[in-house]
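Folding Task

Wanted — backbone structure
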Amino acid sequence: MLTRYSTRAPLGAVAILLSAACSEDDLTAPNGPVPATVAMVELEGTRPALYIQNAEGTQPTRIHFTGAIDEVPGNSPLVPPLTDENILALRSVKWSPDGRRVAFVATTAHDQAEVVVMKADGSDARIVSPNYAYVLGDVDWSPDGTRVAYIMATQPSVRGLDLFVSDVVGVPRVTRITTSSGYRGLGGTIRFAANGSSVWISQVTGEGGAPLFESVGAIRRVDLASGAISSVLENITGEVQAVSHSGAYAIVMRHKSLTNGVYDNQLVRLPIVGTGPEQLLVDGGRLDWAHLTTDDSRVLLLRAGKTVSTLTPSGGPEATLRGSGAAPLSADAKD
């Protein structure tokens, strides 16, 4: 279970996402309203803590973990329970399509990570993945909000990376979709297709030469019924940050220049289908990551490890959502 009460939050955020907000609580931005409620994972000493607060960083509410229901068959009873004292890491926080639940990856032991789903008010925390392996990269919800997809190591030393899907309604059911997928790229994207019958994944397949050492990647489609993996787009210059649910485009980050060991990056919208040109969304700056919101309506961008901005996938001026000394690692939003 989880308990919940209001408290003052310290700085040092290591993860951030955005939750649903009523229209009267929205922040006005050049591209339209953006959500005003933020869920953050902040470091308190060496332990991460989950907070829910408004976008200005005031009135935070701390979510306290005192355990979670674990009904996944075969899970190890030796893994420490999900409590404030045991949590080593929290990441990849994602809102469900209806904004009522949150999924995230939690670590309570070394070389271990598990997917947890809870209600948006912090109640009813449930473990929905095997707890004795390591979940890597992203987590994503199916369009109907009944399943979550993730990449998990099936062999020691974080090897044998394959796609898994967990049913999260009722007793969790875990299905291994691929076997020896050859999945590469720990920062790869995973995204349910709009029809819910397949998943898009991005893979790092190579690296360019000096001086920028640009990533080379690919987007693949995984059929959930058969586990078959098919190529969608190869030899992508840059690191794929997100793929739209429709599969029509990807958000890609590329190196522009390197100065004193720091990359100046660009963000582009890359068509996946058709022959249209790519579109430059952000031209330069220290860009750390970019994610699409749950409904693909906005791109969330982290600048210089501390400022979260929002813009539409078609470009336009950025609107700063949060700027502080914090260091967010992931984000999601729901209108």
Summary: The domain at 2-235+294-323 is CATH 2.120.10 (Neuraminidase). The chain has a mean pLDDT of 81. The longest strand covers residues 249-259. The radius of gyration is 19 Å.
